[in-house]
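Annex B. Sample input.
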Amino acid sequence: MKRKLCVCVVLAFVFIFFAVVEAYAVCLEAPSGMMSWWPGDGNTRDMVGPNNGWLQNGASFASGKVDQAFSFDGVDDMVGAWGAGIDDLQQLTIDAWVKHNSSPPRTIQRYVTLLGEKAVLRYDGGLHFYMRIDGSLHHIFVNDVLQDESFHHVAGTYDGSFMRLYLDGEEVGNLNVGGIVGYGNGVVIGNGEPFFGLIDEVEIYNRALDPSEIKAIYDAGTAGKCKPSAQYYIEYWHLSHRVYQDGRELNRLSFSLRDNITGNYPIEDIVASVELYDPHGTNVPLDDLNFFPEKLMYGGYDGYSSQWWYDEEFGFSSAHIADIGSKLIPGTYRLVVKDVDGQEYERRYSQ
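Annex B, continued. Sample output.
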């Protein structure tokens, strides 16, 4: 009886131990070379790059592998994004967590597409990764490896010589192929061939991650990758110079802050101070800083119907603008912004 009691106590402690480990799982520092990262945590923001996405045709969010995920109904839902810094990649990694609600035979469901068939991760009776190299499509296909109602980590890489396909942290196929990778035209998550389920933590890198890096992303599980800790970041900033016909010159600073967590712009001015330093390290005097919040809507032109379309309103674009009294000089300027909570943000700009 005592022996049975001891076994039960030990098992109880083991269960508690693993529960505590899961609760306090440590996030993974993201591998180098990440160009875009769409976590799908209630917004379509690109966490590291300029390619913020937009929901189309009813795509939404649901509980995912890491926080929230993109949710698709299998009809025509999609998330679109631009491909700045991605369209011309010659080496790359695409990875994501995917969960099928169902995957009937003879169906094709896309996870991530670099348009122009530059690179595609999809399901068509099995896990499929293909790329356009030297004008031809090259394929890796692994049959019957995904289970419905379960999250799987999928990844495709290309290092200039080998394409490799990974499932749940392990390499499941490769192909020796060299040549010029086709030029892309943006990124689509979900549609193309409609996907029915969840897609989470979509990432694109400018190099082929090695097997240990792929395995580390899979092993991180629900902890995911570490997100930026600062509340805001300087999304863009610009120094402009203009000469009018009457000889007057205008030099101007403009920049915007964006929320690191929600991806939204602040609708109120949260900037406490701004300092601009020229290439010699000298502080540049600024006129009064003006704040301009504007409502934004996603939109585009549909060439098939020859009509403009507009999606739902998604937030504000908040610009800060100040005139500069002195002349701009060639070189790298440094911008330091402090918010009302005392957090500092810094970026550099080559003039």
